[in-house]
């Protein structure tokens, strides 16, 4: 069985405990990315500063600079993290729907997109900010992240439309009707609360909104089992 090892000195044990109690580099990077998404969506790329992002993330400016060598690199990393989460959500849903008819698949993917938009309004706010600037960042955003999603959804909508299962509207128009309907309530949440008294951050509201989008696009909805608010 081997010999019994001697217990390490108390000083070494203390050092180990202290080391493991420190935030990991991944945790720090994640806090920085989350703060960056919030500030870039609120103030635009030009309006947000890395100093403000560091303060919101609860880190020092040198630590932020250690992880990201400039605001452009941080912006791209934040966008990558957001779209990686969206892609993971949609891919996970699609993986569980193999063999299901295309209309049902599309409806469930649309529901996931609405719920993701509700939980992550930064997505559409940042796209809107960059469309107003109309520069190289929106070029990169479209070609790196948006076009693959657009192509896949436009193809689905085109097939459904040709089969009479979706409105007979060109796919580009359907795509923007979908993305606008999915996101606007959550992007304009402060206005929505003031106008209607409805809180878009309520998960039940997000489910109800997903039902409404599906009803408008496909004449279906109410698959979530929620009660009307």
Brief summary:
The protein has 229 residues and is mostly helical. It contains eleven helices and no strands.
Topology overview:
Elements: H1 10-21, H2 25-47, H3 50-57, H4 61-67, H5 71-95, H6 102-119, H7 122-133, H8 136-162, H9 171-187, H10 189-196, H11 203-218
Helix pairs in contact: 2-3, 2-5, 2-7, 5-6, 6-9, 6-11, 8-9, 9-11
Mind explaining what this structure looks like?
By secondary structure, this protein is mostly helical. Helix content is 76%, strand content 0%. The chain has helices at 10-21, 25-47, 50-57, 61-67, 71-95, 102-119, 122-133, 136-162, 171-187, 189-196, 203-218. The N and C termini lie far apart (66 Å). Mean pLDDT is 88; it is low at 1-21 and 223-229.
Cα end-to-end separation: 66 Å
Strand fraction: under 5%
Number of strands: 0
Radius of gyration: 22 Å
For this entry, what is the oligomeric state of its chains?
single chain
Mean pLDDT across every amino acid position: 88
Index terms:
229 residues; mainly alpha; 11 helices; 0% strand; globular; disordered N terminus; disordered C terminus
């Amino acid at each position: 069985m081997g010999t019994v090892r001697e217990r390490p000195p108390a000083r070494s044990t203390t050092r180990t405990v202290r080391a493991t109690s420190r935030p990991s580099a991944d945790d720090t990077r994640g806090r920085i990315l989350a703060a960056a998404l919030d500030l870039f969506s609120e103030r635009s790329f030009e309006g947000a500063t890395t100093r403000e992002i560091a303060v919101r993330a609860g880190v020092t400016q040198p630590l932020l600079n250690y992880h990201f060598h400039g605001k452009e690199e941080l912006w791209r990393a934040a966008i990558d993290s957001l779209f990686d989460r969206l892609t993971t959500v949609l891919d996970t849903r699609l993986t569980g729907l193999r063999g299901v008819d295309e209309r049902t698949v599309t409806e469930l993917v649309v529901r996931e997109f609405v719920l993701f938009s509700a939980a992550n309004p930064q997505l559409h706010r940042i796209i809107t900010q960059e469309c107003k600037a109309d520069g190289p960042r929106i070029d990169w955003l479209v070609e790196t992240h948006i076009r693959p999603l657009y192509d896949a959804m436009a193809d689905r909508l085109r097939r459904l439309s040709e089969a009479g299962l979706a409105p007979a509207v060109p796919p580009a128009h359907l795509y923007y009707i979908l993305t606008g309907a999915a996101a606007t309530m959550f992007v304009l949440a402060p206005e929505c609360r003031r106008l209607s008294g409805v809180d878009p951050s309520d998960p039940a509201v997000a489910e109800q909104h997903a039902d409404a989008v599906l009803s408008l696009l496909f004449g279906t909805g109410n698959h979530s089992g929620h009660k009307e608010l």
